[in-house]
Amino acid sequence: MVDLAAAAVGATFGALLKEALEIIKKACKYRSTLEGQIETFQNLGPVIKKIEKFNEQLDRPRQEVEGLIRGMSEMEKLIGKCPKPKASKPWRVFSFPTYYDKLKATDKSFERSVTVDLQLRMAGDLQVVLLKLENILESLSKQSYGTQIQGPHGAPAKPEFTVGLNEPLQNLKIELLKPGVSVHVVTGLGGFGKTTFAKTLCWDDKVKGKFGNNIFFVVVSQTPNLKIIVQTLYEDCGLQRREFHNDEEAINKLGNLLIEIGKSPILLVLDDVWPGSESLIEKFKCSIPDYKILVTSRVAFVGFDTISPLKPLGHEDAEKLFCHLANVEGSNLVSEIVRSCKGIPLSLKVIGRSLRGQDAEAWQEMKKLLQGHSILESLQSCSIPNSDPNTDLFACLKSSLDLLEHKSPFEFSVPFPLKECFKDLGLFPEDQRIPVAALIDMWTELYELDDCGTRAMLIVKKLANSNLADVLVTKNGDANNSDEYKCYNYHFVMQHDIVRELAICLSKEGPFEERDRLIIDEIKRPHWWIVENPQGITARILSSFPKWLIGQRQQRVVARTMSISTGENFTSDWCSMQADKTEVLVLNIRSKTYTFPEFMKNMSKLRVLIVTNYGFHPSEINNFELLSFLSNLKRIRLEKVSVPCLCRLNNLKKLSFYMCNTSQAFDSCSIEISSALPKLEEMNIDYCIDLEKLPAGICKITSLKKLSITNCHKFKVVPQEIGELENLEELRLSCCSDLEEMRDSIGNLHNLRLFDITDCISLTNLPEKLGELRNLEKLCMKGCSRCELPDSVENLQQLNCVVCDEDTSPNWEPFKAMLPKLEVKVLKADINLHWLPGVLKR
Question: pTM score, two decimals?
Answer without folding.
Answer: 0.65
